[in-house]
Amino acid sequence: MKRAVICFTRIPKPGVTKTRLLPILTGQQCAELHTAFLRDLSVVYGKLDADLFVAYTDDPDWPVLKQIFPAAKAFFPQKGADLGEKMHHAIAFVLEKGYDRVILTGADLPLMTSAHLERGFAALENADVTFGPTSDGGYYLVGMKRPCKAVFENQRYGGATVLENTVASAEAAGLAVALAKKCDDVDTPEDLRSLIGLLTPDSATYRYLMRLRKEGVSL
Fold first, then answer.
1. Measured between alpha carbons, how far is residue 17 from residues 25, 78, 106, 182 in Å?
2. Bridging pattern class, strands 101-105 and 129-133
3. Is residue 73 scored above 90 in pLDDT?
4. Measured between alpha carbons, how far is 86 from 167 in angstroms, rounded to an integer?
5. What DSSP assignment string belongs to 94-107?
6. Who contacts 109 (Cβ-Cβ below 8 Å, separation ≥6)?
7. Which terminal residue of the chain, N or C, has fewer Cβ atoms less than 10 Å from its own Cβ?
8. What percent of the chain is modeled with pLDDT above 70?
9. Of 196, 169, 87, 177, which is closest to residue 133 (Cα–Cα)?
């Protein structure tokens, strides 16, 4: 069985990424934190028996991702008018390469482990689509065995009912849905402040947050 995982990410640049953390971090610090997230994800993806693809927001500086994900099979730009269309395109693009299972994850996931991804792949044994829930009502992971655009159509992302609405769309399209393991992403200063006690000391994110503390950032 051929498996693939997609990292869906922005380019870690000041003023472009993690901007919701600007109340407590500078633009440069936001970009450096995002880079730490990505380095930890690179380690997690490397533990899987699955090919890695990186889908990035179209940006001329995207080659920086090659340094972060040296084992990636391919990099390609996100395409679509909105988030749902971009996710659909990315999953369809990789499935068309002959993979049996494809999982797409976000990039703001310093607590995600290979076990989260393996749970997602396992869910696809008896389901058509899987979602990894987050505590705020969204999802950090979506996996499929074949493309289904209906899952992503007419969705409003960012609210507390994103997962509920998306599952309803999948079921209305006749798809069997199974949930993967819950994992929270990091979007807000509150998310960041609660993160340190949950990280392993050998992670790039933990080391970077310790550096910020030493520099006087209140975390």
1. 12, 15, 13, 24
2. unpaired
3. yes
4. 18
5. HHTTT-SEEEEE-S
6. 37, 41, 140, 183, 185, 186
7. N
8. 100
9. 177
Report d(CA 188, CA 112) in Å as an integer. Answer: 17
Say which residues have a Cβ less than 8 Å from residue 1's Cβ, sequence separation at least 6: 100, 101
For residue 205, give every residue at least 6 positions away whose Cβ sits within 8 Å of its Cβ, in sequence order, or none.
33, 36, 37, 40, 110, 195, 199
Mean pLDDT throughout 206-214?
Answer: 96
Distance CA 61, CA 150 (A): 32
- From the CB of residue 97, how many other CB atoms can be counted at a distance below 10 Å? 13
Which pairing describes strands 139-144 and 129-133: parallel, antiparallel, or unpaired? Answer: antiparallel
Between 204-214 and 27-46, two packed helices, what is the crossing angle to 10 degrees?
A: 160
Judge whether 104 and 8 are in contact, CB under 8 Å: yes
**52-56: long-range contacts at Cβ-Cβ below 8 A with a sequence spacing of 24 or more?**
52/4, 52/5, 52/6, 52/7, 53/4, 53/5, 53/6, 53/7, 53/90, 53/94, 54/6, 54/7, 54/9, 55/6, 55/7, 55/8, 55/9, 55/86, 55/90, 55/93, 55/104, 56/9, 56/10, 56/11
Tokens of 2: 């051929």
Structure tokens at 166: 């998306």
Report the predicted TM-score, pTM, of the whole model to 2 decimal places: 0.95
What pLDDT, in 10s, does the model give residues 107-163?
Answer: 999 999 999 999 999 999 999 999 999 998 999 999 999 999 989 987 777 777 899
